[in-house]
Amino acid sequence: MEIYSTAILLFLIMDPLGNMPIFISVLKTVPPRRRAKILMREMLIALFILVIFLFVGDAILQTLHLRQEAVSIAGAIILFIIAIKMIFPPSRGGGIMGDTPDGEPFIVPLAIPLIAGPSILATLILLGNQHPGEQGKLITALLIAWTASSAILMCSNQFMRVLGNRGVFAIERLMGMILVMLSVQMFMDGIAHYLG
């Protein structure tokens, strides 16, 4: 197994550039000084989950009698709900974060499903099955992809300054529409794998 090719694969699945507008819109109401801390916390939570799934993901799914299709469909439903709230935000404020303390995201939606989503979890389970005994190389590849993704997402504050509130508002609606399509595709893929 090539570490760098695997790292590139995992980086592309994490899709930090595609996720950046969502991160910006989720964190737009958070004070600027808190954003970097929240981002790092969510990225560390995502890394923790990814490492757990790398080692014991297949065993967890078998123990709970869950199929990978169920993980994909559940992720699709969560993304769909997030997308609808991005397109039609609640009239009383709170944005897509609802009633979380101080409007800060915690685990959902940044760590899960945006970084540690069903696609990358399924990929890690598959890679673990295909390359038994090579967990060291897999962890190295995962850390390279995670570090690159974290570095890109940590620059979201600079992008927010450039875009301003109107830019973030427009991108939030656009990303909501894209997320609806992605969530429907994930749902259809999960159903197709289940039926197939």
If you had to describe this structure to a student in words, what would you say it looks like?
By secondary structure, the protein is an all-alpha fold. The chain is built from 8 helices and no strands. Helix 1 packs across helix 7 (135-154), helix 2 crosses helix 7 (135-154) and helix 3 crosses helix 6 (118-130). It is globular.
Descriptive key words:
196 residues; mainly alpha; 8 helices
List the helices and strands and how they pair.
Blueprint: H1 3-14, H2 16-26, H3 32-63, H4 68-87, H5 110-115, H6 118-130, H7 135-154, H8 156-195
Helix pairs in contact: 1-7, 2-7, 2-8, 3-6, 3-7, 4-8
How do the SSEs run, as a string of H and E? HHHHHHHH
Q: What would you call the quaternary organization?
A: single chain
What value does the average pLDDT take?
A: 81
Q: What class, by secondary structure content?
A: mainly alpha
* Number of E-type strands: 0
Structure summarized in a few sentences:
The protein is mainly alpha-helical and 196 residues long.
